[in-house]
Amino acid sequence: AMAEGPPRGRTPSPGPGGAPGPPSPRTAAPPNPPAAASKWVRLNVGGTYFVSTRQTLCREPKSFLCRLCCQDGPELGSDKDETGAYLIDRDPTYFGPILNYLRHGKLIINKELAEEGVLEEAEFYNIASLVRLVKERIRDNENRTSQGPVKHVYRVLQCQEEELTQMVSTMSDGWKFEQLISIGSSYNYGNEDQAEFLCVVSRELNNSTNGIVKEPSEKAKILQERGSRM
To answer: Which of 7, 110, 159, 189 has its CA 20 to 30 A from that of 87?
Structure first.
C-alpha cells in the first residue's frame, strides 16, 4: 500500500532523524505587520481622529508626537482606544495647524482660530520652531492693532482769491490740498469783485499706541478754526 504523504498545505521540517519536528519559534510567532500598516498612525485627539505618517509626526525629534509614535515606551503612558488610535487629551480645534506645520513646514491659521490657542498647543507638543513662528505672528498682529487704522480728517475752508497764496502756505504738518471750488463773487470792494473759493484739505489722523488721538499742531489748529467758522 502506498504511504500517505503529509497533509496538503503543510511542510513540516525534518527532525534529527528525518522525522518531522515541532515548528520553530520563528514560524509560530505572529507575522509582522505590513509596511503600509506600520507607516500610518491614527490619533484620537479629544475625540476627533487624525491620520498621519510616522515620518510626519517625527519631523521634530524632540516633540511629544515623535516620542509618542516613534519612541513608543511605557514611560509615556501612551493609551490607545478600541480602534488602536493613540489617545491625546487635547483640544482638536487647534491640532490641525500643528499637524499641517509638521507636514509642510508652514504656519497656516484660519481666521476663526486664535493664535494664542495654536501657541498653547505648540508649547504642549514641544515644537520649538512652531512656537517661535506663532509668537512672531502674535507680535506682528499686536503691533498692527496698536497703531490703529489710518483715518482722514477733511476740512472745507472758505477764502477769497487774494488769500489763496496764504492758504496754501499754511498747509503744513500733514495737511494735504484736495480740491478748490469756486463759489462766485460774494463781496464787492470798490469797483472789483472778489472771487470766493472753497478749499478742501485733508490730513491723516493716526491713533497713538495708548489709544489717545494726537493733538494737531498750531498751524493745523488754525486750519481747523477757519473751517469751524463756516
So the answer is: 110
- Is residue 31 one of the residues assigned to a domain? no
**Cα separation of 134 and 105, whole Å?**
13
> Nearest Cα to 28, choosing from 41, 43, 13?
13
d(CA 69, CA 72): 6
Tally of domains in the chain: 2
Phi, then psi, of 29 in degrees rounded to 5: -70, 150
Q: How far apart are CA 98 and CA 46, in angstroms?
A: 15
Same domain? For 120 and 154 the reply is no
Do residues 108 and 142 share a domain? yes
Domain hosting 162: range is: 149-184+194-207
128, pLDDT greater than 50: yes
Pairwise CA distance, residues 124 & 73, whole Å: 19
Residue 136's alpha-carbon distances to 72, 95, 104, 128, 142, in angstroms, are: 33, 19, 19, 13, 10
pLDDT digits (tens, 9 = 90+) for 26-84: 444 445 544 444 789 999 999 999 999 999 999 998 899 998 877 655 445 568 889 88
Query: Which cell numbers in the block locate residue 169?
Result: 502756505
